[in-house]
Amino acid sequence: MGDFRAHVRSFGGGEVTPEFFGRIDDGKYQTGLARCRNFIVQPHGPVTNRPGTIYVREVKNSAKRTRTIPFVYGFGQSLVIEFAEGAFRLHALGATVQWPVAAAWVTATAYTVGDFVLYAGTTYYCKSPHTSAAAFATDTTRWYAQPVSGELEIPHSYLEDELFEVTYAQSGDVVKLGHRSHPRRELRRLGATTWQVLDLAEGSSLAAPTGLSGTATAGAVPGTPFGTDYVVTAISGDSDESLQSGSTTVSNNLYDDGAYNDLTWSAVTGAVRYNVYKRASGLFGYIGQTDQLTYRDDNIAPDLGTTPPLDVELFAAPGDYPGAVGYYDQRAAWAGTTNTPQFIAFTRAATEDNFNYSIPPKDNDSVQIKLASRENNAILHLVPMAEMIVVTPAALWKIGGGLSEVLTPLTVSTREQTFVGGSSTKPLKVGNNMLYVAARGGHLREFGYDGDKQGYISGDVSIRAPHLFDGRTTLSMTLQLAPFPIIWAVSSTGSLVGLTYIPEQQIGAFHEHDTLGDFEDATTIYEEGRDVTYVVVRRDIDGSSVRYIERFAERRFINAEDQFFVDCGYSYSGAPANTISGISWLEGEEVAILADGAVVPPQTITGGVLTLPDDITASTINFGLPYSSDLQTLPMALEMQGYAQGMPKNVNAAFLRVYRSSGIFVGPSFTELTEAKQRGTENLGSPPELKTEEIEVVIKGAWSDDGTVCVRQSDPLALTIVSMTLDLALGGG
Fold first, then answer.
1. What is the distance between the alpha carbons of residues 278 and 286, in angstroms, rounded to a whole number?
2. Collapsing DSSP states into helix, strand and coil, what is residue 194?
3. Which pLDDT score, from 0 to 100, does residue 279 have?
4. Following DSSP, what letter does each residue of 262-292 receive, concatenated?
5. Chain-centre distance of CA 174, in angstroms?
């Protein structure tokens, strides 16, 4: 045996940069890794190979980049929106939503956005409301042909190079979309297969009342009459107030005993109440509210502190389209136009698109401000936290209600919080923190409130792993909350950078993942009782470049045959079979196979068919593109003079404590690996049992300066390493 035994009790430090290898004094050194490829660092210390991905569907157009965004209506009610050039598609539970059976097109019929019709064997989606003419109009301004393959497509006008610039914010069944080259829009769900894309109009959802008139009733002793002007507004059930009606003048002397004016007007669709205003000193002041269509003024004094709302259009023209959208304090917020890049407007309280205001201002009026910044950088993101966090390339700001904590036109407060600005990549909220990509350098940073400093602070969470971000661009990020929080960041290199992140426990561990292709986007939703991450992957299949939607498989499993550690894969369960057909998406590719829990030699998909070798049959067959998971320990640092640096080291054996694992290879490098022999008392022909125990692997000797150990899992089997003890010898003492 060797001279020393070194125990690696945890891998919770994750992968660190080679530039960190000298920081023996840092606590993360004892738990860090030189390489953590296709392994996930668990917050309590172990590492486990990542689950594979299940094929869902080829994207709408494989020649173009495609984005995904989550649609989460409520707990357990979610789906993934495929955001392709020209159309949205919808995916849930690993399947794609199909267009409904449509009735035949009929002349003289009023069609609205989202209606489906069948004409000449093709199903069409109505893009704009109209009444059908004598001949069927197939022009693209009215109808959008659905694909014959059955996927529901909701048309839009965004181009490929604009997709990742679109910002979004969801409220209930509505996803608001912002882009500086397009009008404000929303994607609205009305039913499982009924969706609309609509341009947004500013202002109240209610029309102004019409038909206002008045009748005067004189007093007992009539005095000299004078004219009194009135207007009326409509109020919806959620307190949205319309613009004022046309005014009417009633001639009477309301100071006489018994004098009054009766007002009447026409009903407004959607209104539940009406406000009545009377002119005084040049303004219309509030005199009362009613749920009727009449109101009596018997000389009520107007409240000039409450006046009818005034109309305003902020985002109606090219150059004024906002590129950022968010929600805060019961208001929708839009910002970052081309003409006024640092202007931000909040809607009236409890309204979606009403930016109207009053003179003097009321607490529920819209809030409109411009950041007083030294640099004129566009607002990129609006992130609601305790205050609204505004992200620009040069700085992060907070906007709130000041001491009142309620945002109103009179309490609004703005403050710069950090001068490390953000990039165009959408930030993530994780607990009480926000994670964002720095505009300069591209590092991943956290932003949160610090009670000691009485303000927000920003810190670099990638400080020990800058090699995963330097010289790269983070294209998108998504958050997986369960079973523990992981940030998945899609890198311009085609890899998927994972960050196991629990800030309250000071846990932040990086791991990097790759596949036979390039990860291009990722989105996480909750379905089937777990968080599921969907990815867009570009692959070269049978000589062609394709892009697929795939979803991560469940990592946890009960039976060994349910292990799923292949990519772009498929799972068969049923009667014992030797062939599986319909696998066209992997045509010509060699796939890794797990059949009833046993590893089967790789086979090539031919004619869309997988055939197991040697007439093997199995009831559960999981197969797909293979991938390897690699782990490498940091250079050995022993508690002795000089931490054993400058002394040659040779690792004789590695003792791995594993959990439900099989197929383990260990060695001094990834080119010199020794398999851990695991077969024990299993029956001949059955797969080796998954081990939960300590495994000793005597490895090929190799003297080196570092004394590192490499572990690889290249089979479609589970591997979880809880801890590791290395038996090593030192030379040159």
1. 6
2. coil
3. 96
4. EEE----TT-SEEEEEEEETTEEEEEEEESS
5. 15
> Coil, strand or helix: which one is 620?
strand
Cα-based angle 586, 589, 595 (whole degrees, multiple of 5): 80
Do residues 276 and 295 lie in contact, with contact meaning Cβ atoms separated by under 8 Å? yes
Which one, of 29, 23, 24, lies nearest residue 11 by Cα?
29
Any bridge partners for residue 694, and if so which? Answer: 657
Burial of 614 (0-12, 13-18, 19+ CB in 10 A): exposed
pLDDT digits (tens, 9 = 90+) for 497-517: 999 999 888 899 999 999 999
Predicted pLDDT of residue 396: 95
Query: What is the rounded CA–CA span in Å between residue 133 and residue 131?
Result: 6
In three-state form (DSSP H/G/I as H, E/B as E, the rest C), the secondary structure along 222-268 is CCCCEEEEEEEEEECCCCCECCCCCCEEEEECCCCCCCEEEEECCCC
Let me know how many helices (H) and strands (E) the chain has, helices first. 0, 60
State the pLDDT at residue 652.
Answer: 87
Mean pLDDT, residues 617-638: 92
Per-residue DSSP letters for 336-380?
Answer: --SSSTTEEEEPSTT-SS---B-SS--TTS-EEEE---SS-PPP-
Question: Is 31 in contact with 45 (CB distance < 8 Å)?
Answer: yes
Are the CB atoms for 170 and 352 separated by under 8 Å?
no
Tell me the two tokens of residue 314: 């902020």
Q: What is the rounded CA–CA span in Å between residue 571 and residue 683? A: 25
Task: Give percent above pLDDT 70 in the chain.
Answer: 97
Which pair of tokens denotes residue 261? Answer: 């004016």
Q: Which of 579, 615, 622, 577 is nearest to 597 (CA)?
A: 622
In the predicted model, what is the mean pLDDT of residues 454-476? 93
Edge-to-edge strands of the sheet including 444-450? 428-430, 433-437, 444-450, 455-460
The tens digit of pLDDT for each residue in 314-369 reads 999 999 999 999 999 999 999 999 999 999 999 999 899 999 999 999 999 999 99
Q: Where are the alpha helices (DSSP H) in 565-706?
A: none
Q: How far apart are CA 569 and CA 436, in angstroms?
A: 32
pLDDT digits over 111-142, tens only?
Answer: 999 999 999 999 999 999 999 887 776 777 89
Which residues does 641 contact at the CB level (< 8 Å), separation at least 6?
A: none
Q: In what order do the strands lie in the sheet with 103-104?
A: 103-104, 116-119, 122-126, 143-145
Residue position matching structure tokens 């019409």: 210
Beta-carbon count within 10 A of 27 CB? 10
**Cα angle value 189/191/196 (rounded, 5°):** 40
Contact (Cβ atoms closer than 8 angstroms) between residue 356 and residue 310: yes
Residue 562: φ, ψ to 5°: -90, 0
Q: How far is CA 43 from CA 13, 14, 47, 562, in A?
A: 9, 10, 9, 24
What is d(CA 494, CA 550) in angstroms, rounded to the nearest whole number? 15
The values of phi and psi at residue 29, to 5°, are: -65, -40
